[in-house]
UniProtKB/TrEMBL annotation:
This is Helix-turn-helix domain-containing protein. Signal peptide: none annotated. It comes from the Bacteria. Transmembrane segments: none annotated. The keyword Cytoplasm does not apply. PROSITE patterns: HTH_CROC1. Keywords: DNA-binding. It comes from Phytohabitans kaempferiae. Residues 16-70 form the HTH cro/C1-type domain. The keyword RNA-binding does not apply. Gene3D superfamilies: Jelly Rolls, lambda repressor-like DNA-binding domains. Pfam families: Cupin_2, HTH_3.
Amino acid sequence: MTDAVAALTAAVAGHVRGLRTARGWSLDELAGRSGVSKGMLVQIEAARTNPSVGTLVRIADAFGVTIARLLEPAEERTVRISDAEAAPQLWRGGEGGFGRLLRGMNDPSFVELWEWRLAPGERHTSENHMPGTREVLHVLAGTLAMTVDGVDHTVESGQTIDFPADRPHTYRNAGSTEIRLIMVVIVPNTEWDRRLGPPGQS
């Protein structure tokens, strides 16, 4: 495990444990709310695993925070400048593509800024996020094949697509050149217990 990955894993461990204990939740309670197994949560809080982006989404949703909140260093700064190369890659494609979280904000709104690259033939399927979540994607290069809730869309270089991300969606590169895009994710400021369905329902 590299120093950068070890630091990231430790940050996630500390934040998950801190957010859980601050709410008075047991591991079983967090497992129920997030849909992540208790065994996996034990591994995460002990900093013994580097969780997938899907697992981080479920845990962040349960707490009502962004993924970035789980990854951020302990210190808070009014102004923060960071290098793209230092941003955590939370998804890696089989042909060299990646998705990395450039920055996230938790106050006053929950917003994440991502950079994505998909090599020809790569795809990433995302499960539904917290109800009310939206994504805005701007394609910098290539042609993105986007499926949202079973409906296909083609997004050309220079175009922007925004859509409700609280339903299944897939990004695909069906072309012969790399796709580069920037994505903004806007997340509602509320906890989500997946056992109860969407927020506000029981």
